[in-house]
Amino acid sequence: MSKLSAVKGDLAKLDRHKLELSRPGVFILYKSNLGPPHYVGRDEVSMYLGMGEFRNNPDYKYYKFLPCKTGDDAYKWECIYWHTGQNTLDNSAERGGKHPKRPAGSTVKCPFPGCTADHDLDIEITAVVLDDPSEGSSEE
Questions:
Q1: Helix, strand or coil for residue 9?
Q2: What is the pLDDT of residues 79-128, one digit of tens each?
Q3: Which of 47, 8, 15 lies closest to 29, judged by CA?
Q4: Cα–Cα distance measured from residue 65 to residue 18, given in angstroms and rounded to the nearest whole number
Q5: I need a surface site. Which of 94, 98, 106, 134 has the fewest CB within 10 A?
Q6: pTM for the complete prediction?
């Protein structure tokens, strides 16, 4: 079984780990070396490419990673870290983030207990209460 890297890497020195990160997996970004996680993401092909867009982001300085065998495995781990990190993640649901999307063409489900996210929709569904037509019109 894969494990999350034990030591945080310096995001500015990402190129040093290009070969090691050139595989599917999950990455977690941090704002400080001793702080909590602030972003969780994945790439189904190369964590190096997935993290590359954050290299010049001044908010994120460090990373940890979890190599995975497949994109589906990366998705499952991303879901677990995303659900458990809601208190500190910049991409949490409370801060406007959305549940991770499953890989294209995959039928894998989120493994987090009780999760009922509809992974194929990128919209928020709001319940609408309609007037009961059997009650008649309220206009007089």
A1: strand
A2: 999 999 999 999 999 999 999 999 999 999 999 999 988 655 443 433 33
A3: 8
A4: 12
A5: 134
A6: 0.80
Q: How many residues does the chain have?
A: 140
- Two structure tokens written together for 114: 């009780």
Give me the number of domains the chain comprises. 1
Residue 1 in domain: no
Distance separating alpha carbons of residues 100 and 5, to the nearest angstrom: 21
Q: What is the spatial distance between Cα 128 and Cα 133, in angstroms, rounded to a whole number?
A: 15
Count CB atoms within 10 A of the CB of residue 92.
18
Output the six-digit token pair for 66: 């979890």
* β pairing state of 25-30 and 9-10: unpaired
Q: Which domain holds residue 91?
A: 9-135
Evaluate whether residue 78 is within a structural domain.
yes
Q: Would residue 4 count as lying in a domain?
A: no
Local structure of residue 38 (DSSP, 8 states): E
How far apart, in whole angstroms, are the C-alpha atoms of residue 109 and residue 1? Answer: 20
Which 3 state secondary structure label does DSSP give 14? helix
